[in-house]
């Protein structure tokens, strides 16, 4: 689905291949429900950015580039939200939320990883905390993100569940303005 870019030089595509190339291993898979926004070489990156999430329906994601990092905006399904709430904090490898919108020691509850008042929405930096690879969405045993390079697995809220990654994926500063636009940064 192509939509009009909200920032000059932004290209939005669907069904974009995801690549990971580490130690001569290659991973490539095509996704139907992911959109990616990237800045062109001529466009100056601005901070913060605004993302129009009005086209996202339950179970779909949008990936944008912010500060040279991939940030995923996911509108979770009801099942993903319930699964996230059911996680026992003692079972988590990293008990800290890693949410820039909360105090540094906030626990990694599902509510502390989601958008306040909009628990169906997740906004996080889509970079594996092990070696900086790009995890693939809706994969792995926890049904969240899987880093195909070294096997780290995150749940639907971006919390590390298995593998060598030491921390949960980071949640950047963001806010909804008013209901379907998200300001990141």
UniProtKB/TrEMBL annotation:
Q: Which transformation does this protein catalyse, written as a reaction?
A: a quinol + 2 Fe(III)-[cytochrome c](out) = a quinone + 2 Fe(II)-[cytochrome c](out) + 2 H(+)(out)
Give the miscellaneous note.
Answer: The Rieske protein is a high potential 2Fe-2S protein.
Subunit composition and interactions:
The main subunits of complex b-c1 are: cytochrome b, cytochrome c1 and the Rieske protein.
The scientific name of the source species is: Mesorhizobium shonense
Domain Rieske residues, every copy: 84-172
Quote the InterPro entries the UniProt record gives: Rieske_2Fe-2S, Rieske_2Fe-2S_sf, Rieske_Fe-S_prot, Rieske_Fe-S_prot_C, Ubiquinol_cyt_c_Rdtase_Fe-S-su
The listed locations are: Membrane
Which PANTHER family did the record assign? CYTOCHROME B-C1 COMPLEX SUBUNIT RIESKE, MITOCHONDRIAL
PROSITE patterns annotated for this entry? RIESKE (PS51296)
Q: What is this protein called?
A: Ubiquinol-cytochrome c reductase iron-sulfur subunit
| Cofactor(s) named in the record | [2Fe-2S] cluster
How, per the record, is the cofactor bound?
Binds 1 [2Fe-2S] cluster per subunit.
Which Enzyme Commission numbers does its entry carry?
A: 7.1.1.8
Keywords, sorted A to Z:
2Fe-2S, Disulfide bond, Electron transport, Iron, Iron-sulfur, Membrane, Metal-binding, Transmembrane, Transmembrane helix, Transport
The way it spans or sits in the membrane comes to: Single-pass membrane protein
């Amino acid at each position: 689905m192509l939509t009009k870019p909200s920032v000059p030089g932004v290209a939005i595509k669907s069904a974009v291949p995801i690549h990971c190339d580490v130690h001569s291993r290659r991973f490539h898979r095509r996704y139907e429900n992911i959109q990616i926004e990237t800045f062109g070489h001529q466009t100056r990156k601005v901070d913060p950015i605004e993302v129009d999430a009005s086209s996202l329906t339950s179970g779909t994601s949008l990936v944008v580039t912010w500060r040279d990092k991939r940030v995923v905006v996911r509108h979770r399904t009801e099942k993903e939200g319930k699964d996230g709430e059911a996680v026992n904090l003692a079972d988590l490898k990293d008990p800290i939320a890693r949410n820039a919108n909360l105090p540094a020691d906030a626990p990694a509850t599902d509510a502390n990883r989601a958008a306040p008042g909009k628990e169906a929405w997740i906004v996080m930096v889509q970079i594996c905390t092990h070696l900086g690879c790009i995890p693939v969405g809706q994969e792995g045993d926890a049904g969240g993100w899987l880093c195909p390079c070294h096997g780290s697995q995150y749940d639907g809220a971006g919390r590390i569940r298995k593998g060598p990654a030491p921390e949960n994926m980071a949640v950047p500063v963001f806010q909804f303005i008013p209901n379907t636009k998200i300001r990141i940064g």
